[in-house]
Structure formats: structure tokens, C-alpha cells
Amino acid sequence: MSQPPVEPAPPGVRAQILATEHWGLLAVRSQTWSEVMGRITSQLMFTSASLLFLALAGQAMSYSSTFRLLAILLGLTLLVAGTLTSFRVHNASQEDYMFIKGMNRLRAAYIDIDPSLAPYFITGLHDDEAGIGQTYDMGVHRRSASQVLASSAMFIVVVNTLVAAGITAFVLWPWGGAPTAVGAFVVGAAHFATWVWLGYRSWQVNIDPAHVRFPTPGA
Asked: Domain locations in the chain?
């Protein structure tokens, strides 16, 4: 027996349902980044305290082999904690992209209810790369390199890269200045390149056209 067709809800009811979902996404997004900022703050405090401790310990131990071993162990602890923080920021960035995608879809639904509202939105109405980029750029339609370089993900990656290079320098310390500098640079560059590659791969997954339902006309 076939089911009777379901009548669409009145526009006012549809708007209330969409607004509820919209506020839900905003709340979860706010909680996510509040937790991520707390993680980053804790990691930076840990790093600052460790550097201060090493500075005082170096004066007391005269940069002996004991101090070197202590610096390596403390650096490894910092790198492990920092890597976990980087993973959390990395995951939060992917989640944030999906939050924006969901809110863009909701704005598209608002326009379906009342097309006259379209001129009043500066954020995107489409869930493809162009539409989500408009939301991130707040309607400017221009995403500069400074926005990527100044992001939380890039910030914590740079901090972890410096820690990784510092650990390498302490490990290679007995070999002399030149090998130590070269080794620290190579390890730091490899660490940084790895995380940039992971970020790029995640971005490619996010912008997969297979997940787009409301593409930007002409994009």
C-alpha cells in the first residue's frame, strides 16, 4: 500500500527547524574551538615553563652531559604533547569546514523560503569550495596566504617544528657545530613539510566535488 505524499511544512515552521539546526552548529563550533584554544594555551605554557627550566638548569649544570640528556627527554615530552595538540587542531579544522558547509546549506534553504533575503548575506550560500571560501572570507572573495600562515594549525606546527629541531640539535651536539646545524635544519624542514602535506591532503578531501549538493553557479 503506497503512502500518501507528505505535505511540506509551512514556511514559518521550516524557518524554525532550520534556525534550530543553525544554532546547534554554531554552539558545537564554539565549543570545539574553545577546547582547541585551551589545548594550545596549555601546550604553550608547558613549552614556556620547560624553556625556563632548561635555562636555569643549564646555569646550574654548566651544560654537561646530564643537562643534555635532560634537555632531550624534556624535548621529547614536549614534542609528544605538541603532536597530540597538532592532531586535535588538525581534526578541529576539518570539523570546522563541515560546520561551515552545513551552515551554507542552511542559508541556501533560507533563500528557498524567501529569495528576497539573498542580498543581505555576506557569507556563502553554496557548499562547494567557492561558497565555503566566501564564508571564511566574509564576502571578500580573496583568501591571502597570511590567513593560512596565521592560522592556529600553522602556529602549533611551527612551535613543534622548533622543538623537533631543538631535540635534534641536542642529540647531535657532540658531533660539532656544522653537523648539528644541518641535522636540526633537515629534521625541522621534514617535520614542517610533513604537517603541511597532511593539511593539504585534508583540504583535498574536504573539497571533494562528490560531497557538494549546492554548487556555486558558474564555478
From this structure: 11-207
